[in-house]
Amino acid sequence: MESVNEEIKQLCEQFRLGGIYPGLQQAVQQAEKDNTGYGAFTLGLLKAEAEHRSRKDRERRLKTAGLPAGADLDNFDTTVDNGLSPRKLSQLRELNWIDQIFNVVLMGPSGVGKTRIASGLCLDAVRAGYKAYFRTMQDIVSTLRTKDAVPSQNTEYRRLLKANLIVIDDIMLFPLQKEIAVAFFNFINHVYENASIVITTNKAPAEWAKMLDDEVIATALLDRILYRCEIIRLSGESYRMKNRKSFFEKQND
């Protein structure tokens, strides 16, 4: 029996059936106890393998998504008045706009929840089975600069080209050099017809030309992003400033 178990283990490793062997002995004992037929027993093993692969796939997609901590919108405080009603947030979380290849622009000052909402939508998309990625604008710039010289960045670039959803956080926070502005336009031009794009920004579209130092590129970029797009203007007091921490103990001075 021991030699049989070892051979089964080796074959599971050879065929990469990581979900079958760990629970095999328990499955055999349960089948003997329940007098399970061969078909039902085999089906149980295959279901275990399917669940194992599904779990591993979710873990892989979550890892490559690059989500910041605290992205889960289930914990989002919908009582805060930031210009996005709970009803609209619920509609966004249904993710129908991804299937329709619609974009979302979250615009507003710092601290009103842009990144929180964008990362939460990305997490929802990953859980729903989409290839979704959260990247800062600086991440994108770094990839564009080095993709032809660094293999890992080339892999990252090709991964983004195959995405269903790309979140770009803090777009146009800093000015872009002409070479990078052109590369960024080419990137958006490659993906906008096949992937939804969520953008967070504190700059109105009219200000993008200044950040790119090129009105033609800015116009062409906005043309692709805004063609099928929902612009959501967030407002209100900065959550971070409202809940600012201090290392001094509260006391009467």
UniProtKB/TrEMBL annotation:
The residues covered by the IstB-like ATP-binding domain are 13-245
Q: Which residues form a coiled coil?
A: none
Tell me where on the tree of life, at the top rank, the source sits. Answer: Bacteria
Q: Name one Pfam family in it.
A: IstB_IS21
- Lyase as a keyword of this entry, yes or no, is no
Q: Could you tell me which InterPro entries the record lists for this protein?
A: DNAC/IstB-like, IstB, IstB_ATP-bd, P-loop_NTPase
Q: Which UniProt keywords apply?
A: ATP-binding, Nucleotide-binding
Q: Give the matching NCBIfam families.
A: IS21_help_AAA (NF038214)
**Name of the featured protein:** ATPase AAA
